[in-house]
Design brief:
Length: 207
Amino acid sequence: MSASHALEGQAVDWLRDSENLLVRFGLNNEDADARHRNRGARAHMFTDAHLPQVAPDRVFPNVVAVSRGAALSIQIRARSREPLGFGFRIATGAEPVVDRLYAVQRADASGYRSVTVRRFQRDAHLITIDLMRARLGHSHRLDALQQLWTCDITTWDVHQFLDPITARVYTRTNPRFPPTPPAGPVDTRRGSARRRPAAPRCGSTPG
């Protein structure tokens, strides 16, 4: 990020909503084409952030700062109230990254299920960071910029699902896996995310 786009905030390892929803934005180092794009790239997360040169009167609860042109991964780690798992959606003001997917695998010892998204669900393109001016042309309207700045992640509990392999239907009273014994909280530096709606491609950098 250039000096004209200086950012001030608290660096965190996870953005989270209480202990039940944690989100981490990072670089996609799994796909070969993403690794090529990410040479020398960086990704950082901040809470209570300020962009004094761009939006001097705003405080952003969560900010993800990523090198221009980088390819992202988005990890969601959540505990659901129901034993079957959770569904999720990742959406920006420009377009959805994931419209509707589910995490219904066995929970870990702490009751969490994790899923990592590295491509758009619709067309399997990489989640890349574009310049805002490339998306807006000559527009400098704040409302248009804010649409590219935002990324909303929504989760919900799964109450029933059909296993496509076994053709079995699982419900709360007929879960797929036995209950996970309770465990202590996850040790993370505190950030925040929104569990229900309170979503640039997922992230854009001012430029």
